Amino acid sequence: MILALMTSGLSCVERQDFDQYQDLDIIPKVPASLLYYEVSETALNNAPIGVPFSEDYNFDAFNEDFIADRIIEGSIAYEIVNTTSKPVDIVVTFLDENDRELDFTDFSVAAATSEPFVLEKTVAYNQADTQRVVKNISSIRIRVINRGDNTSQSSLKDPKVIFKSSAEFKVRLK
Amino acid sequence: MYRFLFFFTLLCGSFINAQNKELLYDFTDIPQALLLNPGMQTDFQWYAGIPGVSGISFQAGSSGVTVNDLFAEDGIDFNQKVRERLIHGVSSRDDLSGTYQIELLSGGFRGRNPTNFYSFGIYNEGDAIGYWFKDYAILGFEGNADYIGDKFNLGHLKTRGEILNVFHFGINKKVNRELTLGGRAKIYSSAVNFSSTKNRGYYITEKGENNLLANTIDADMEFRSSGMEEIYRAFDEDRDRIPGILTKRLFFGGNLGVGVDFGFSYQLNAQTVVTGSVLDLGFIYNSSNVRNYTLKGQATVEGVEVVLPDAFAPNDTDFWKELVDKVEKLVPFNQNRQGYISFRPTKLYGSLRYNFGKALPSRENCGCDYRYASYRGVERYVNAVGAQLYAINRPRGPQAALTAFYMRRLGNSLALKTTYTIDKFSFSNIGLGLNVQAGPVNFYVMADNLLALENLADSHYTSFQLGLNIITWGKK
């Protein structure tokens, strides 16, 4: 009784609006690397000219339930560094779990001269794209096509084509 | 969700009451003050607490944000308030803490040797503290995209708590006219205990060595618990079992421990008293219903890495699975049931009291025996002023509070104590305690941080205590 008297009789509580909690948005923006792919000039020289080499790599980061249910929008950044003496085409294709094509990005990479050739590209995925593409990615297909010759040798040290990628997406936790 | 709410409620229950009972400390008219200093100057012949209501106290403290800071109807966007006032406004040293204590049984009696006073009882206590997990909150709320190169400190997770029954027996000994010593032995019966206080490590996203980004985790983390799994399971399967489980574990069916309290009072001169006590020097060995979780190791991830050999050839390697397996191997998340020792939050009190004004007649019943003439108690005065110091051992080191007090007795039937306390929660904590003695019936009620009553929702700290006892001094 005394307690009630002290809390209700003597004390005051300014009006609080706990429904504000419903307005709370917890949407962190999370970046992480996706795929690093490296192919040496020797490998390119050993492959037939103009014939693509293609391989699928399992990638379940986005279709884990926790992420797939919450991912909203974001972007995927690519950086390709070519220190070989030949131009190459690279096609990155995202596949769903039934190997159906969801989206692709292609790159025409020039040959290195005295300096490495660097190509950067960022592909944005809005909410619709993210729902259609990103959350369903189950594997990544990399296709490399040598558009040059298969005899030349770059003067740069340890010549190779390096494909780098990272993703930065918003994830709705609440 | 329900389980989360249940444990949140349980924790909130634990986040109620004050560890610092500056109003009750050295309030010699109230038997429950013996729990804060077993060496308090006593003059009771015997007392008996009314079961369940002889001593009820609860407190909640938040050194960071208040309810009003977040939920006031101020027209400010809630997300902005959370971001500015909570996520970035609260320090990792700020905490949400509290305790409740309910006496189930309480009594005391003066021995055949009147210089000895014995007290005993059972009380239920919950105590918990959680420091603001700032870096986790930033990571969860904003993510790491804008913090490339910044380390998120995994050590920001620091929490501990428990719910237990304490069975105690204390002896208060008047050594001579100046000195009173006391000790109390305690047996702890713990129902629930959890702690995660020694976490170390970091999580960082930075420019990668090969790929664009590298995510590194370096963790040495542990969460230890006892009693929670059984309740958790009952919550899922049959919630009616929970009271029975708690009761069983609180009465020697859980984890047991031992502890002691020590205290003294020393009469420097006729009107000046110095006191001190150390409480809950003890531990509990958690061996039943233990469930511990660990995350220990270091790993850096730069995504799936594919380095083709010098000749294109089909490759069946599942690089993604290899990556996941590698991380799980480098930073394994394990569970175990190893028993562990949990130490109680030890508390320390000290005070200096100066009595003045009119002296009141002694109520003590040991004035007639010539053998104890030299032990006779000191006179009580209508006024007292003084200072008190309080400290408690917490996961991030001791928390201290300094109190100035004034006490006024109106005859033998009414006593008031007012305090002004400075601690990490508040610099304006004024408390008031009232003790009423109506014949043998003793009733006390105390409240802290009265200025905050103007708007409780904006208070960083609040506490209440009350109790009902039967006391006799044995004098006709």
UniProtKB/TrEMBL annotation, chain A:
Full protein name: Uncharacterized protein
Organism, scientific name: Arenibacter nanhaiticus
Automatic annotation (TrEMBL), chain B:
DUF5723 domain span: 38-448
Pfam family, one: DUF5723
Lineage: superkingdom: Bacteria
UniProt cross-references to InterPro entries, sorted A to Z: DUF5723
Protein name: DUF5723 domain-containing protein
